[in-house]
Amino acid sequence: MISFPNAKINLGLSVITCRDDGFHNIETLFYPVPLFDILELVKSSDIKTKFTRSGIVVASDYDSDLCMRALNLLKKDFEIPPLKIHLHKNIPPGAGLGGGSSDGAFMIKMLNEYFELGLTEQQMENYAGILGSDCPFFIRNHPRFAKGKGNEFEDVNIDLSGYFLLIIKPPFSISTKEAYESIKPSKSQVNLYKLSELPVSQWQGKMVNDFETVVFKKHPILSEIKSNLYELGAVFALMSGSGTAIYGIFKHEINPHHHFPGFFCHSAWLT
Fold this sequence. Notes:
By secondary structure, this protein is α+β, with helices and mostly antiparallel strands. Helix content is 28%, strand content 28%. It is built from 9 helices and 12 strands. Strands 1-4-6-5 form a 4-stranded mixed β-sheet, with helices on one face. Strands 2-3-7-8 form a 4-stranded antiparallel β-sheet. Strands 10-11-9-12 form a 4-stranded antiparallel β-sheet, covered by helices on one side. Strand 10 and strand 11 form a beta hairpin. Helix 1 packs parallel to helix 2, helix 2 packs across helix 3 and helix 7 crosses helix 8. The protein is globular, with a radius of gyration of 19 Å. It starts with a strand and ends with a strand.
């Protein structure tokens, strides 16, 4: 079985309060985008599961990879035989694009289908929530307003079909932990849910990411990338998650490699 875990972007992100459990309460809009990893699994005749990776290098060891953590989580409740699992990484880690979270969530969905476990979407979201705050979003995988740790959802009517997406990531990453340590939570001055009803052309200056203030101060190149995207004609640009990927939404196609040499670049029409 093969699947294609996709990335997400955050259309705004507010860090509201610190929680007693060490996490933060946030408000954000998640939007799935066409940048894909490739995840494959088959039954194995070996006595142990074998997990391999290729593509973009990931710093974590195999046992802590969210694919393996998802497998081991379900194995606590279900009989799952040894497997051969291969993950090809196209989504850069440490970018705020949710690549690892997507891999873990898609592993849960694949195991549910492959072994006919009979899990509902809500049950799969519950398992995904154990893996990480972003993971449950990728179970249903459509635009959603999220609050709490990022795992309490409401559907939103956002459709970016017909726009051209450009994602730029410089050759360095920021850990989510590092970004949260630098930010001061505060009550949101905007209503992201209401803002989502506005045309994309009216989002600039209204739909914000609280992490930009602290992350741009440490890494001014990110602010430059965002400004460059607007200079190239983006109708909206923002950092995704806690960074370091910056995305621009355009009405026209653009060749990113001419403008951002040496950076990770991904572009696609949204459908």
